[in-house]
Design brief:
The chain is an alpha+beta fold. 32% of the residues lie in helices and 31% in strands. The protein starts with a strand and ends in a 12-residue tail after the last helix.
């Protein structure tokens, strides 16, 4: 299969999908490649903040996502010894302290809104294997595999929106450095008990963060910080004491935890790290989202940063074609707009992680 487009986006997650929609809407021929065969894949970052909400509202997408299904968080709570010791409620102008949007709901809307454009093409189950370079050393397209079929795509710009282990970044030889956070994360998903309110609940267990995120559809996502690289050792130990700690902190979860978390296999391990790339673009290729700046889970900034990147990059790419300039200098304008803001958030994440235990200090009574 041989295809051609102005832009080829590798990665059909929220950032890549939004960028594909915005480019197609502006008349730029766009192909989006996604290595998964469906949109209902396991996903970890599904919470929008005001930034992500603002981007969706800017393009009249928020109400459509709302119709597909989302959930407004009413408050953030910090629990200790079975009691709430601290509560964070929405600011006066806000309706929530975060929004849970299942990835499949968000992607369903973005894809549905993109497909009517004749200049848009989505290839699912397609893995990139090679970048093409012209005689000047500029990226000019890519090679991929869809099932047992070879796919060749000629494009003027390749966008790497393919996550923390970006193939595009590696093939384009764009360097990056990782930042360790000293912990890994175990995720589990359980049905919420009847009457469970849309909240984010935090606790401290053996000095580590335990967080419950209410999800659209009647679920709770459990996030448990563990020592970095400790999971292989943990899995050799009895599972019962681990679960007992969850129930002691949140006894109302006793029944659903026992029913739905019965072994270590019911958890998903996330190796926590953030990353930075000193450059985000070369001639004919640009990276965005986690490919350019992996975020840690703290604060749920990742998906929101990806949407903000897509918003900014759509304008930069439109300008590139308007001015017939797809050089690295033009594409690196995304760095001028986004780098400082992203790195500030990464620093905030590190500070939040270092000071998390302070949320559980009871002020002295004078």
């Amino acid at each position: 299969m041989k295809l051609e487009a102005d832009v080829c986006i590798v990665g059909g997650g929220p950032g890549g999908a939004l960028l594909g929609y915005l480019l197609a809407k502006q008349g730029i021929s766009t192909i989006v490649l996604e290595r998964h065969t469906g949109i209902d894949k396991e996903f970890r970052g599904e919470h929008l903040n005001q930034d992500g909400e603002r981007v969706l509202k800017k393009y009249d997408l928020y109400k459509k996502v709302q119709e597909a299904g989302l959930l407004l968080m009413e408050r953030i709570e910090y629990w200790q010894h079975g009691h709430v010791i601290k509560t964070v409620t929405p600011a006066v102008a806000d309706q929530h302290v975060g929004i849970h949007v299942p990835q499949k709901n968000l992607l369903k809307v973005l894809i549905r809104e993109s497909l009517p454009y004749q200049n848009y093409n989505l290839l699912m189950g397609t893995k990139v294997t090679e970048l093409f370079f012209n005689q000047n050393g500029n990226v000019s397209g890519l090679k991929a595999i869809k099932g047992d079929q070879d796919v060749t795509i000629k494009s003027k710009i390749v966008v790497g929106a393919d996550g923390r282990f970006s193939t595009v970044r590696r093939l384009a030889e764009i360097p990056f450095s990782t930042i360790k956070h000293g912990y890994d994360l175990l995720w589990a998903k359980i049905p919420s008990p009847q009457g469970w309110e849309p909240t984010i609940k935090n606790a401290l267990v053996n000095g580590k963060q335990l967080a419950l995120f209410t999800q659209e559809g009647g679920f709770i996502q459990i996030g448990w910080n563990i020592e970095e690289d400790s999971y292989p050792t943990l899995k050799k130990q009895s599972f019962a004491p681990f679960i007992k700690q969850v129930i002691e902190v949140f006894p109302e979860l006793t029944e659903t935890v026992h029913q739905h978390i019965q072994s270590w296999d019911d958890f998903i391990l996330l190796k926590v790290q953030s990353s930075r790339s000193p450059i985000w673009a070369k001639d004919g290729v640009v990276i965005m989202g986690d490919a350019a700046h992996t975020m840690s889970p703290t604060g749920a900034f990742g998906i929101n940063c990806a949407l903000l990147d897509a918003d900014a990059l759509a304008d930069i790419i439109k300008e590139a074609f308007d001015n017939n300039d797809i050089s690295a200098d033009q594409l690196r304008k995304i760095e001028e707009i986004r780098r400082a803001k992203v790195e500030k958030l990464q620093m905030q994440q590190l500070i939040k992680e270092e000071t998390y235990q302070d949320n559980f200090k009871i002020p002295a009574i004078s």
